[in-house]
Amino acid sequence: MQDMLLKVQQRGSESEWRGRDPLSGAAPHQITLISQEPDRRPLRAREHLPCRPEFRRRYAASRSFAPKSGDPEFARDGGQIEADPKHVSSKMPLPSIKIYPDKFVGQVALITGAAQGIGQVTARLFAAQGATVVLVDIQEDKLQRVADEIAAQKNGKADVRVCDIGDENQVNALVEGVISEFGQIDITVHLAGVYPFIPIIGHSTEQYRRIMNVNMDGCFFLTRAVLPHMNKRGYGRIINTSSGTLQLPDNGLSVYVAAKSAIVGFTRSTAVEAGTGVTANIILPGLIRTEAVWNNHVQPDGSHVLFDRLIQKQCIKRHGQPGDIAYTICFIASPEAAFTTGQIFDVGGGATFH
Q: HSE of 192 in the Cβ direction (CA atoms, 13 Å)?
């Protein structure tokens, strides 16, 4: 049997064995054992252990049952992953979520729908990792509160921009203003949307146009405005939001589902037309427990039938949280995702498959 290659992946120089992650306080390295013997089967997850005792000790010390810190607010908003006690062994602690404060340093992330819910949590996560975050929404007071939260984070940088994403003139002015001030837009995350429950029979044309305008027109206006700048820079991440209702439509959401379906086709076409270094992908959230959605679906007896029903369809038996979407978006927006474009990232606990 050939020797095994011990591969140490860590942030910083190889000499920084004892370096600690500045936010979580945990050791930032991961150790993976890789077989060099061509005929051996791949190692299972539980076999990915260091072979020497001193490495085992260091490896064990770097892991914890749950994230100890990071930002407590991310944990509150869904950054933690809930474990099923039936499948957790005390001898095999779970890995923790790591947040690196320099991940997006030097990058500008423009996020629509940033005043609350998924947009708020996503904006704060980008800021916690060094990005300059441009907060976009029509609710100025809520935007300012999010900006204040980010300013309270270590090295947090946020810029507030009030804009109706369904107005092409406002979107053009928004993008030009950001380019004028910061010189670049590296990431756009289009999370703004509306989803009134209106049956097809009795659905007015005015209501139809409003739903299509905010969801699909806004996606088009923003992409059209930022793409030339990203192409010129040779780098960009365009992330648009669809919906799990594409495969699990509900009563009264016909126009919303149509708009979200259009976003999928449009984003894939954007991926084809984008220049070198620019990717375009779709985040497809399932039913996410934001404050607004949770309150909108409460029954007179205090129950949440829609959430309970969907959990029965999910492979992962818990409520989706804003942090689940935010962490996925940050991956799609990362340099590591450079070879992935035109794809749907379904974050719905396995309720649907593609």
A: 33
- 177 and 229 co-located in one domain: yes
Top-confidence range, 7-11, 68-72, 85-89, 339-343: 339-343
- Confidence class for position 306, pLDDT limits 50, 70, 90: confident
pLDDT band at 9 (very low <50, low <70, confident <90, very high): very low
CATH no. for residue 174?
3.40.50.720
Residues 118 and 57 in one domain: no
Active-site option among 100, 195, 235, 256: 256
Q: Write the CB contacts of 65 (distance below 8 Å, at least 6 apart in sequence).
A: 93, 94
Instruction: Work out the end-to-end distance of the chain between its first and last CA atoms, rounded to an integer number of angstroms.
Output: 41
pLDDT of residue 88: 57
For residue 93, being part of any structural domain is answered with no
> Does residue 33 have a pLDDT over 70?
no
pLDDT interval class at 352 (50, 70, 90): confident
> Could you please report the per-residue DSSP string of 290-340?
-HHHHHHT--TTS--HHHHHHHHH-SS-S-B-HHHHHHHHHHHTSGGGTT-
What residues are paired with 285 via a beta bridge? 347
CA pair distance 286, 288, nearest whole angstrom: 6
Q: How far is CA 80 from CA 68, 104, 350, in A?
A: 10, 21, 18
Write out the two tokens for 171.
């979107």
Based on the residue annotation, tell me whether 256 is a catalytic residue of this protein. Answer: yes
Report which of 127, 77, 120, 59 is spatially closest to residue 99, judged by C-alpha positions. 127
Task: Give the range of the structural domain holding residue 56, as residue numbers without chain letter.
Answer: 5-87
| Sign of the four-CA dihedral 72, 349, 260, 108 | positive
* pLDDT higher than 60, residue 274: yes
